[in-house]
Hints:
- The chain is mostly helical and 453 residues long.
- It has 19 helices and four strands.
- The chain has a two-stranded parallel sheet. It has a two-stranded antiparallel ribbon with strand order 3-4.
- Strand 3 and strand 4 form a beta hairpin.
Amino acid sequence: MGAQRGGWGWPSAPLVAALAGGGFALTLFVFHPGVMTYDSLYVYKAIAEGRVGDWQSPVMTALWAVIDPIAPGAGSMFLFTASLYWFGFALIGIRLARRAPWLGLLAVLLGFMPPAFMFIGIIWRDMLFACVWLCAAAVAFTVAEARAGLRIPAQFVSLMLVALGVMLRPNALVAAPILTAYVLWPRRFAWKRAALAYVPTALVLFGLMQVVYYDLLGAVRQHPLHSLYVFDLGGVTHFSKENQFPTTWSPAEQRRLVTDCYDPYLWDAYWHGRPCSFVMGRIENEQKIFGTPVLSAAWRRALAAHPAAYLQHRAAFMGTFLLRSNYTIWTQDVGDLSKLALPDNRGFVALVAVSDALKPTPLFRVAFWLILCGAICAAAWRRRETPAGAFALAVAGSAVVYVLTYALVGVAADFRYAYWAVPAALAGGAGVVVSRTMPVIPEAERSSAARNP
């Protein structure tokens, strides 16, 4: 390769790193010691009780147990997530500074953008997952044109981070092969090669998840997939006006099931929601069929008998997920929901005010980020044979696929479930900009580089 404009960008690298360090310091100011949520509290209690289940990610439980001594409670996971976030943007910034210093600084400044920054201190596995994948792509992007002695170990780290993301969010399995293909071949994105590797990659990651969850960590099977069955059975019952659950109901309960029990926002209406918690009360506590083949068989029968009702239900959920103003950042104290999580933290109080002001805007609509990622993919497609174009296509493409998985497996419509699309769009957008300044690597030169790394 010929010398690139800006060299390796090392004169500007300290400035880029300093800006990322400032972002990390601001994150500490706004969020320290981190905001515990119900989900994260469930995981943290599992550490203290010595139990590992698969309702939440057992890998997150194990990871948190290892790092907890750093800052017991929310602090350790908060510091870990925030470090990954700013490290990822710093690497991208330093890499882009090879083209021009201002591009590197712009890439890091994007990390301050709402709503990306606004979620970093909230302890949810969705934030951790997104930051892990951001770092996986950033590491591969940084070493895309490095010699094999540096590139191969870095690629191994990136692959481990991709796998960790799948362990944190199993539905990421469908999107992971896209990012994996990029990590393996970061200089250019060859779609035929990626397509051939897609199924084998997904199978390997699925098998690895089973080994890690149940063999290495000994996780107890709590059947989180059955929450999807309950939600879908409730949806099909509502739209078909016929009971699809493998049980019988009183006339009053049946009326509720086909009228006011159904909420396309989340499945909790059948679990904790009043007056329809009788559903899980019957299925889980009385008949004890939650987690058994009885429920999964009923789900298959319902889909086969009423496909139109099922599609109405999934469309209602996805419309809610993509278009509605859904729940965003967690602001409450888990011990007392009437109180603010960090009432004495002026930075957090200000962040909540900004979040409330921005919530009605497209920035807090999943559809906005999905469309933006799709547009980045379209723009990057023509530049996919440059390192920056391949990076943009991989991060934005994986985000598009990841968000769309919720059309089939989503059981709640909080904005956080689509969070990976936010840093993916920001980082991918920067990649698209710089890709237009990069020459496409000729085939002969690519072959020569492959033979002589």
